[in-house]
Amino acid sequence: MADKAHHLPGQEPQNTFESTEYWGQRAWAHLESVRQASPLIQCITNLVSMDLVANVLLACGASPAMIHSVQEIPDFTPKTHALYVNVGTLTPDWLPAMKMAAQVANDLNKPWVLDPVAAGSSGFRLAACLELLNLRPTVVRGNASEIIALFKGSVDQNSKGADSTHESTDAVAAAKSLAQTTGGIVAVSGAVDIVTDGQRVVGAKNGVPMLQRITATGCSVTALIAAFVAVDPSRPFEATVTALSVFGIAAQMGMETAKGPASLRTNLIDALYGLDRGSVLRHADIGNMC
């Protein structure tokens, strides 16, 4: 299991990040590896998102575990292939478990991914997110307002909670700076999902606007990033880009027969389960931003 979860057969390091064909092939390789390896993803996520997060991971072939008790972390976290931390329904009781799990992941050289939901909406939430950021997550994925709040380190007086008041392109400079500071990957969700390692900046253009009308889709794509990073931990930049694209492709396919947010939610899960190589290669829309 461990060997499967840490290798992509036939995928050698590449020197170009400009080819659409390259990204499509990489996206399919990551999805296929998740299906083959079924990586165990520990999810310390918010109460609103647990159902969709678990179903998205299962549909893609990963194995979700909603383990958030501080008493269980020393025994359980070492068994996982990646950790996903989401602060959506944060309370003082949950923060120690999040920090402990992140530290265990770091100590064991396991990837972990942070979703700083509504980071700038309150002093308590911002401080918690900054504490977690100091534990150097492998990937941070948030909307533009969340990434800007982390970069500035200040509460956003115009915050709308989990809803962004900025476009993803507004946060490119903040994302690059955060990536350079933490040494990790920073992803900014939006009409174009932006991913940076502090130098490279790539945009994934897959997805549909109606995803904004379904709760926990952002949380779920961050969990998918954790699964993709679990099967390619040496290349978290590529894994993040392809996870965002695959999720967006599934949304596009699900939207073809959706009548509204509720049916799109169901179709999204079905589309993730049924994605094939041809669909991924045909629909992947990824390219350099600069």
Helix run count: 11
Rg from C-alpha positions?
Answer: 17 Å
Helix and strand string, N-terminal first? Answer: HEHEHEHEHEHHEEEHHHHE
The backbone outline, from C-alpha atoms, is: globular
Provide the structure class: alpha/beta
The largest sheet, given as strand count, sense and whether it forms a barrel, is: 9 strands, mixed
Distance between the termini: 38 Å
Count of DSSP E strands? 9
Strand arrangement across the biggest beta sheet: 2-1-3-4-5-6-7-8-9
User: In which range does the helix fraction lie?
Assistant: 40-55%
Look at the structure and give the mean pLDDT: 90
Strand fraction band? Answer: 5-15%
Low-confidence stretches: 1-16
Compile the SSE list and pairings.
Elements: H1 20-37, E1 40-44, H2 50-60, E2 63-65, H3 73-76, E3 82-86, H4 95-107, E4 112-115, H5 123-133, E5 139-143, H6 144-152, H7 172-182, E6 185-189, E7 193-196, E8 201-204, H8 217-231, H9 236-255, H10 261-274, H11 277-283, E9 286-288
Parallel strand pairs: 1-2, 1-3, 3-4, 4-5, 5-6
Antiparallel strand pairs: 6-7, 7-8, 8-9
Helix pairs in contact: 1-8, 1-9, 1-11, 2-8, 2-10, 6-7, 8-9, 9-10
Short description:
By secondary structure, this protein is of the alpha/beta class. It is 46% helix and 13% strand.
Structure commentary:
The chain contains eleven helices and nine strands. With 290 residues, it is of the alpha/beta class. The chain has a nine-stranded mixed β-sheet with strand order 2-1-3-4-5-6-7-8-9, with helices on both faces.
